[in-house]
Amino acid sequence: MVERTLGIVKPDGIRRGLIGEVLRRIEGAGLKIVALKMRQLTAGEAEGFYYVHKEKPFFKDLVNFMTSGPVVLFVLEGENAIERYRQLMGATDPKKAEKGTIRGDLAESIQCNTVHGSDGPETAKFEISYFFSQTEIITR
Ligand code: CMP
């Protein structure tokens, strides 16, 4: 099934000049980028995006981190895109992520883990519509 998923290059990835490297890996894996923009998130936007984690002990630090610099937001499209992009990213904790994955090769820590990706169809729907209007997504 052709799916769409929401991805983010996080502030640590941008600080280290990894936008191109992340997008190269995504395109190399055959996933289509159908929307793309750079934004500085407000605290309110980051809190709303990560609301499912609001009770977690790392929530405040996560919001501070996600607003510490700009992020690159994108929508990917492809057959089984949600799971394929998750495989490409690797585990949340870079210590557990396999070599060859984005986090395994590039991420600094469980918080500064370089990229985000939706974890399932419902989340993808919410996350895409959180940051992109329909007219910002290319259909071809
Ligand atoms: P992400 O996949 O974007 O989803 C939640 C984010 O919280 C995660 O990546 C990390 O950036 C951050 N985070 C910080 N500490 C933890 C933790 N202990 N477990 C999971 N996520 C964490």
Structure description:
With 140 residues, this protein is an alpha+beta fold. Helices cover 39% and strands 20% of the residues. The chain contains seven helices and four strands. It has a four-stranded antiparallel β-sheet with strand order 2-3-1-4. The radius of gyration is 14 Å and the shape is globular. The model has no long low-confidence stretch (mean pLDDT 98). The structure holds adenosine-3',5'-cyclic-monophosphate. The site of adenosine-3',5'-cyclic-monophosphate has 8 residues, from loops.
How do you describe this structure in short?
The chain has 140 residues and is α+β, with helices and mostly antiparallel strands. Helix content is 39%, strand content 20%.
Percentage of residues in DSSP E strands? 15-25%
Total number of β-strand segments? 4
Query: What level of helicity do the residues show?
Result: 25-40%
Distance between the termini: 16 Å
Which stretches are low in confidence, meaning pLDDT under 50 for 5 or more residues running?
none
Q: Helices and strands, in N-to-C order?
A: EHHEHHEHHEH
Strand order across the biggest sheet?
A: 2-3-1-4
What bound compounds does this protein have? adenosine-3',5'-cyclic-monophosphate
- Computed over alpha carbons, the radius of gyration is 14 Å
Sketch the major β-sheet.
4 strands, antiparallel
Mean pLDDT, all residues: 98
Structural class: alpha+beta
